[in-house]
Amino acid sequence: MSKDKLPRHATEQQNVEVSEAQIAVHWPEEDYFSPSNRFIAQANLTDAGIFARFALDKFPECFKEFADLLDWYKYWETTLDTSNPPFWRWFVGGKINACYNCVDRHLGQHKNKTAIHFVPEPEDEAPQHLTYQELFVRVNEFAALLRDFCGLKAGDRVTLHMPMVAELPITMLACARLGVIHSQVFSGFSGKACADRIADSESRVLITMDAYHRAGNLLDHKEKADTAVMEAASHGQQVDKVLIWQRYPSKNSSPTKLVEGRDFVINDVLKKFRGQRVEPVQMPAEAPLFLMYTSGTTGRPKGCQHAIGGYLAYVTWTSKFIQDIHPEDVYWCMADIGWITGHSYIVYGPLALAASSVVYEGVPTYPDAGRPWRIAENLDVNIFHTSPTAIRALRRDGPDEPAKYNHHFKHMTTVGEPIEPEVWKWYHKMVGKGQAVIVDTWWQTENGGFLCSTVPAIHKMKPGSAGPGIPGIHPVIYDDEGKELASGSGKAGNICIRNPWPGGFQTIWKDPERYVRQYYSRYCRNPESKDWRDWPYLAGDGAVQAADGYYRILGRIDDVINVAGHRLGTKEIESAALLVPEVVEAAVVPVADPIKGKVPDLYVALKPGLAPSEEIANRVSASVVSEIGAIARPRRVIVVPDMPKTRSGKIMRRVLAAISNHLDPGDVSTLANPEVVDKIKELAK
Prior knowledge:
five-stranded parallel sheet; seven-stranded mixed sheet; 20 helices; 31 strands; alpha/beta; globular
């Protein structure tokens, strides 16, 4: 019997074998899906020998292939400097500019090609198509403004609090042109959250927008800037200038007044810089390009510092060979530039390859779940990139919508969290029309770009599995005692990366001790060693490697529920719930139990128009028992009208856990749907 035809529980670990150090894994192996011959024929990477070229005995010089995709003012002298582990420095001695690589170098061949398709949320507003020549002009003029009006220079930090508009990549690239370090804050974050990042990065300039569209509303965004500046001052950081892009040039769309001497409308000031050109600053490869703050719910925000040379080389290579981007492609990553995915795979990676990158302002399901497919049809998008969160929402609100539109994707990406096999199959069949390849990528803010993924023209796809490490990435799974689990063992533990890679972050801004403690200390073999082999990187995720070498990510180590000594990954419980046809979203949270320690509560949301019933709840519970075993049976299945979600669409399991444990869920005002919390409280009584 072939491995991919094993019966449902053939891969299940016996309970007696599951130690406290392992997560119990009960997910069945899925069948494979092969890329089409048509895709393989046009793919950028079809040579399976790539993995031999990137074997550990070729490390680190193999990464020259990544850096050679870029234009350098000066070639590097040292590929990897390991003199101060784990603060790795890549391409040391090299001189480069990220903006030049994303804009200037394309003008000879591609100046009249669209660089950015900006799609406003209101459908009666026409998309804007910014060519590489127009991008060059606008980036130069704004760089001149930042340099001459704001006095910014290489190494200074600037905080951006901007929505999904074309002016955001323009602003980022203008900063990169000057060597100014940008720190973009997700537009859905509050003024106070923005202030924390201003204070930590010591930014003197805040760049924002007066208003933007979201779910049918024109939101006042300028008011958050006032809060941010005031709160930053209370932390001891003075903001000298607030620069405000206008959503509609020459029109003020925010009722919040300007503060004289501090606030400046960019569209007005820019007139003085019309036609100006700014020579890109030749920057050291290891100089910082940007800070990306992770959005933890507790503690000081964590500023991940990414370098110019290593980061740009990594996202360019992965965009070309994992996402299969060609210059003639129209590529749409439906993430937000406020997150690392948007930095890497909306702005820097695609633009470095002279692709056409789509920037969409609004909510994917506004005004209805057909919106993404209309956009894809109109722009002839052929590469589509989004998160399981968005896929689940589109499956819930419009499961049959993709079939109504004449869009054709050759390639689709999923990113941000593990995707349940049932959701993957809908994505493949309905969105990809059974023709697109899917890469189910695993990586994090700290990593810069993809760590695990199938190479789309080389590997078969397997729903729910991220695939092997990409070329040059060598994962390993350790148990809690630091013992390496055998490759392909099917046993779960903590996934780590054996070797440094160019896209990895350099440090946590102003907190190097936390960087070492959180990511390297646990499995470091010798703190005195300068050998990279002694410093594996701890990702903080649980994972299992199947016999075929593919990794399945089980979620954050912190998300494991310990039921009577059995460590159950929340993702597989949620996946089992989604096998019930009526269920479109599922969230598992741990509840304190005097006997078992913790037990799972399972919250589910149903397809629109379906009424909750005890019968559905019972079938959900039965599905979990059938797929995993009685040990995973939920204490309760609670059918809710909607999940509490962040503005970016992520389910706030913290709120659900508080409700289940009869604790205060805290401030829920920043949720996209705070009104649902009281309804859930009633249902969970």
